Amino acid sequence: MAKKSRKMQEALEKVDTSKAYSVEDAVALAKETSIANFDATLEVAYRLNVDPKKADQQIRGAVVLPNGTGKTQTVLVFAKGDKAQEAEAAGADYVGEGELADRIQQGWFDFDVVIATPDMMAQVGKLGRVLGPKGLMPNPKTGTVTMDVAKAVEEVKAGRVTYRVDQNGNIHAPIGKVSFDDNQLIENFKTVQDVIEKAKPSAAKGTYMKNITITPTFGPGIHVDPASF
Matching InterPro entries, A to Z (predicted)? Predict the structure, then answer.
């Protein structure tokens, strides 16, 4: 087992691992125990009582955080004609067609989000092997395959995050930076919480949310008490 650093040991001493904190206390403690020497991200992690292997229990989508993520997202849009102009006007960083696909095939990945109009998916689909493993493949469920490219770009720039349940039934989503004030982080958390609650599959039985944890990029996880909200 890797030896924990002195800073991590000191941070762990501040956390009662047998306790589930209120969301207010969890946010404050996560900020206090962040040991990164940069403006770290706080993330919420859910362990859900779902079976992702079943099609009716897969959870995936996107949500716009009211206070943003604290990160500037670089957006690439596959579109042509008027839709390309709309994407550019909305603030997309890269807009194009085949020439962008060729650059990506050659190993270029200087972007965080890919958006495409439906008519471009025949070209974009060929990039599945390189975009898919990086979580960059456009998908209608996350709002990244759409004719309303302007809205999609604006939402990403404003702080839209995507979420997807993994093979173990976990979902991870950022809720902001350590530099955010507590109320901003709590509001972002509650926005994500509301979306995940509403995404509960009808086929899921028993306790839906088995565990909720708020964690800084470098620091201990803080368990959140669902009863606190």
Answer: Ribosom_uL1_bac-type, Ribosomal_uL1, Ribosomal_uL1-like, Ribosomal_uL1/biogenesis, Ribosomal_uL1_3-a/b-sand, Ribosomal_uL1_CS
